[in-house]
């Protein structure tokens, strides 16, 4: 009688363990789906509302007309550019991630 009880207990234990793993996997995947909305910060309904607001704002910007007469104004024309031209700098190594061939404080020559 002892042999018969062992033969049906092993498959029953395997079935219970598989069921527990399946339930845990289901809840784990459901948790990940719930946090996806939290990560994006915007639900689908709010996303549609934001898209609509964006489209309305873009429509208003299309209707906007700028007066370009300011570019012919004496004040605009009297402005001077005080920018500086940049001098070209020497290039570094062709592949900065390549191993160094020799140790030098200035780096290897390539």
Task: Provide a brief overview of the structure.
57% of the residues lie in helices and 0% in strands.
Sheet bearing the most strands, described? none
**Coarse shape:** elongated
Average per-residue pLDDT, rounded, comes to 78
Low-confidence region ranges: none
Structural class: mainly alpha
Radius of gyration: 35 Å
Distance between the termini: 83 Å
What is the helix fraction of residues, given as a range? Answer: 55-70%
Order of helices and strands: HHH
Strand content: under 5%
How would you describe what is shown here?
The chain is mainly alpha-helical and 110 residues long. It has a domain at 2-61. The protein has 3 helices and no strands. The mean pLDDT is 78.
SSE blueprint:
Layout: H1 2-40, H2 44-63, H3 74-77
State the main characteristics.
single chain; mainly alpha; about 55% helix; about 0% strand
């Amino acid at each position: 009688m002892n042999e018969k009880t062992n033969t049906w207990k092993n498959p029953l234990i395997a079935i219970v363990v598989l069921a527990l793993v399946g339930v845990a996997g289901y809840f784990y995947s459901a948790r990940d789906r719930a946090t996806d909305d939290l990560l994006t910060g915007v639900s689908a309904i709010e996303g549609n509302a934001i898209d609509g607001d964006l489209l309305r704002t873009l429509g208003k910007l299309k209707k906007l007309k700028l007066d370009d007469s300011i570019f012919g104004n004496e004040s605009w024309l009297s402005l001077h550019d005080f920018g500086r031209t940049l001098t070209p700098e020497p290039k570094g190594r062709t592949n900065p991630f390549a191993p160094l061939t020799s140790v030098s404080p200035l780096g290897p020559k390539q």
